[in-house]
Amino acid sequence: MSTLKPKQLALIVLALAVLGGWSFFDAFSNVGYGPKQPIPFSHKLHAGTNKIPCLYCHANAERSRHATIPAMAVCMNCHSVVKTDSPNIQMVTKLYQAGKPMQWVRVHREPDYVYFSHQWHIARGFPCQRCHGEVQNMEVVQQAKDLKMGFCIDCHRQNKAPTDCNTCHI
């Protein structure tokens, strides 16, 4: 059995460090990530066909840093009378009546060290599709953009927004 020479060991350590760093910095790209949800929910039907505005369901985006998942009451505004015989809607109704939230699986996220505010971007008039893609055409919501720093910096430069570190990093 042969032993590793110091140069070989250094190369292996370097390769592992590079792969580990790449994995860390690429962890938030997630392009194409569209997890299975507790019930099927079609943004294509709701936002596309029925033309329900994003901010109807994600109303907190106008006044908060987070868009948030809609409260069950928002779903029930329509589904107390629409498709009430659907097993999925019956599940929503049951959760609503029990005062429990739907356990949706989050699709879009940034690292903890990034401060992003939906409120600021909506106030500037940016459409949700700029970062989230053509959600109104998605049967299953998927992350359409890489949402890494380069994506944000490019947008900030194009729109003459600040690009200093303190703009987004807390």
TrEMBL record:
It comes from the Bacteria. CDD domains: Cytochrom_C3. This is Cytochrome C. InterPro entries: Cyt_c7-like, Multihaem_cyt_sf. Pfam families: Cytochrome_C7 (PF14522). SUPFAM superfamilies: Multiheme cytochromes. Residues 114-169 form the Cytochrome c7-like domain.
